[in-house]
Description:
The structure holds 3 protein chains of 3 kinds. By secondary structure, chain B is mainly alpha-helical. Chain B contains 16 helices and 4 strands. In chain B, the strands form 2 sheets. A two-stranded antiparallel ribbon of chain B has the order 1-2. In chain B, strands 3-4 form a two-stranded antiparallel ribbon. In chain B, helix 6 (about 120-145) crosses helix 7. In chain C, about 40% of the residues lie in helices and about 5% in strands. Chain C contains 7 helices and 4 strands; from the N terminus they run αααββααββαα. A two-stranded antiparallel sheet of chain C has the order 1-2. Chain C has a two-stranded antiparallel sheet with strand order 3-4. Chains B and C meet through helix 4, helix 5, helix 10 and helix 14 of B and helix 1 and helix 7 of C.
Amino acid sequence: MSTPHHPPSPDLFSTATTRRDFMVLTAAALGGVGACAVAWPLIDSMNPAADVLALSSIEVDLTPIQVGQVIKVKWRGVPVFIRRRTPDDIAEAQKVNVSELRDPQGDEQRVKKGREQWLVVVGVCTHLGCIPLFNAGEYKDGWFCPCHGSQYDTSGRIRGGPAPKNLVVPDYTFLSDNRIKIG
Amino acid sequence: MSAPKTNSIKGWIEYRLPIFSFIDHSLGSKYPAPRNLNYWWNFGSIAGIVLVMQILTGVFLAMHYTAQSGMAFDSVENIMRNVNYGWLLRYAHAVGASMFFVVVYIHIFRGLYYGSYKAPRELLWWFGIVILLLMMATAFMGYVLPWGQMSFWGATVITNLFSAIPGVGEGIVHWLWGGFSVDNPTLNRFYALHFLLPFVIVAVVILHIWALHQHGSNNPLGIDVKTPQDTIPFHPYYTYKDFFGFGIFFMIFSWLVFFYPNALGDADNYVPANAMVTPAHIVPEWYFLPFYAILRSMPDIAIPFTGMVLVQSKLAGVIGMFGSILIFFVLPWIDRSKVRSATFRPVYKIMFWIFLLDCIVLGYVGSQPPEGSALLIGRIALAYYFAHFVILWFVSKREKTLPLPESISKAVLASHGGY
Amino acid sequence: MVGIDMKKIILIAISLIGLGAAGIAFAENQKPPLKQSWAFDGIFGHVDKQAAQRGFQVYKEVCSACHSLNRIAFRNLADIGFSEAEVSALASSYQISDGPNDNGDMFQRPGKPSDYFPLVYANENAARATNNGAAPPDLSLIIKARKGGANYVYSLLTGFGPPPAGIQLTPGQNYNPYFPGGNLMMPPPLSDGRVTYADGTPATVDQMARDVVTFLQWAAEPEMEIRKEMGLKVMIYLAIFTAFLYVAKRNIWRKIH
Lengths: 183, 419, 257
């Protein structure tokens, strides 16, 4: 026995149930929009505030830095090493066989073209976050991390010890020959 | 497997923790509510939503606020100027506090009019008074946190009240302050308590609702539910009505937050606290004004014609102020009428409106300097406030009440609806 | 019916009290401020950026001699239409205290956009000592910190005059009926032509007062325009949603009636 087949209702509101469903659906949709609109300011309020963002980039004057000298500046709460490398340092960095490195990166990828004497790296060991010491390990004019013995070369690349990655090169640009903006 | 087959995820949870049937039976389609509730019954659920909103905005504000006397004001300005949507969080929280009191005061006066405090709802009423007292403490301490001039001096004036207690008063005040004046220790403990108390309020609200559900809601006629015909399922009738109420509430709330956020506040609180300079007028937030009026209007309690003072006006003011709230605890026994709703109590109905007017007058008096005509009006209004309860004791036993309808359903059928 | 009459009485009482309370706010020895119309008033209020820039010039050249603005950072001035270059140039024209350096000393350096306007006086005591005992308040919040807001500040700036008969001024005091009590240490700061506007607008006292009030309004509430725009959107959304909920409620309750 077959029940008569009802043709689809041409009118969306022909039954109380579908009108009810429409109401519930619309209410839920409008309410959902409202809930998102309420949630967003709460979530966004946890993002960095305007004064924190204002300090998110710094400008550094390079004039006082002598050849072979390294300075430490504070950027976004962490130290950044800025070193004016000697020609020996640059040569040393460039002649390394990149494929043998734990984190393969050529020296030219870590400096700006035409300004290879300037090395700008975040002074935080990529192992567990201590601040490495300059010229204190196996690599002359490199860095050594006293916490667990990571060794970085004259380009800040990891050469020994437990750290997995090279010292991070932050986003920076030369505003002029003697001025950089980090971040 | 003994788990039900239908809707298996829901069934799996339900078998282990019957949360779905619990919701169904407490505010779903299986919770019966009187069919004749009017819009004055919306304010309880609105109060609940405001509590949730205050806790949410409060927690996110707490991520940026610093409770140290040298940094508190600056941290609030940092929220206003630097934190993303910080101004919105701050204004929502400040306006929300005022709206919380508007809603709760209406909710209380609904209870007074319809006799919701009468048996068997005395404990429900008591939990409500406790919630009001906790709200007042929370709001008082919260207002101190921005460390503006009013924050500081309002705290000084009100905490100084406790020195009125004979003997141990001064010791208590130093204990409250953590020092010899309102200062950093006071600010820090107020912050800790302001964070804590709202969760205590939540716990008492749960007790409040639990007590409510024992005998169900009162209704505008004040007569008991007798048969299921007197009720309708809470969902969808009152859920949708409550959602509509939320919509109206949030429109009023948003109007204030976005266009007149400082209308209910005091300009002096945008001046950083200065212990060496007192503002010309120390005024609490509007929701404390009636109590402030009582505090300042109480005279010395003396034996007439002898000039012998029994209780100094300072202590009398404190007793009067707390008494004006504590008296509500005994209201179910002061009001001896067997009839609940003022709809059927023409004498009590007049008394109710006069009492409401009296509270408003007290509120106005609280905003004025306590001198001249304001002081006189304040004393009259204060006297009437307590006289109301004395009068009620006598009137409630004797008044002629109108005949009650037989049942809710008969009354509703007779008026064949209004919506 | 007695109940309804009572309700009317209550409502009238509330309105009267509300009006009375608003009116009485300025009663004793303070003239109520002149009511002005401001571009930033009302639900469509906005900050006139040209006026705010002129107002900043007035602040810088007149008010900043005594009044600090230390909740505003140089970078905030981009909000009222200054370019990044102008902001940097302005910032570096100020000397900002920084340090300690490696020797342990504090030093002065040119300002950066992220710096805040520096203090005028080292602390409140220094401010009082230099100003006959009255410390000039910081202006970052002044519009919100005074009853009457923008109207009050405008009236004060333009309201200086000789004291009426019977009012005594101590040396250094000035008379202004809009100030509570009437006597204040601040001398009238504005006079016609005191500032030469960069955009050529004639600098009358009224113009300068209006411009600096517009600037100070922005300084007190930098979020105002966003707040009101958001408010409009929120009200429209809520109106639609609430209307819908009302229709839904009526629909559901139809069965019962």
